[in-house]
Design goal:
166 residues, transferase, Heat Shock Protein 90, alpha+beta, kinase, HATPase_dom
């Protein structure tokens, strides 16, 4: 399993996250920082490989990156701190994969229509182009931004089993 979790070096500031995992479900509570995003992306990639969903790794990793970066750029820090808390869940469903980022800022995201060569402001547009379905759900004090990916081909036949322990 060590080869699946080739994590980048953790900077001196560190990354704070709590991870819970069982077959087909990954949940990570974290302080979203620029240092945390690539580490969390690596963890998600490893889980999808273990679950036999290698065909979804790139799309799901891009989605995780974009949704966490949106938290970093567009949500207010927790009062009294400079941190932005979020919960990432990745869940294997029958015939699909759900990626969801919950943050605690009630401002809903807006789909921007920036130019294709723009360096920022295209995150949700990218997510909507890779995902089979995506959206946002409000809850008291925050929102869930989610994307669903249909499981196709050989991956659909692996629906009941995971490769190795997660």
């Amino acid at each position: 399993m060590a080869d699946l979790l080739e994590l980048p070096a953790v900077p001196a500031t560190g990354v704070r996250a709590t991870t819970r995992s069982k077959s087909g479900h990954l949940e990570i509570d974290l302080d979203v920082t620029s240092e945390a995003v690539p580490i969390i992306r690596t963890v998600v990639r490893a889980h999808l490989e273990l679950w036999g969903l290698s065909g979804l790794i790139d799309s799901a990793a891009l989605t995780v990156t974009e949704l966490l970066t949106n938290v970093l750029r567009h949500t207010d820090p927790v009062p009294g701190t400079e941190t932005r808390g979020a919960r990432l869940t990745v869940t294997r469903l029958t015939g699909a994969l759900n990626v969801c980022v919950r943050d605690f800022d009630p401002v809903l995201p807006r789909l921007s229509h920036n130019a294709a060569d723009a360096e920022c402001g295209r995150g949700l547009l990218l997510v909507s182009s890779f995902a089979d379905d995506c959206g946002c759900s409000e809850f008291t004090g925050g929102k869930d931004v989610w994307a669903n990916f249909l499981v196709r081909g050989d991956e659909a036949s692996d629906s009941g089993r995971a490769r190795g322990a997660s």
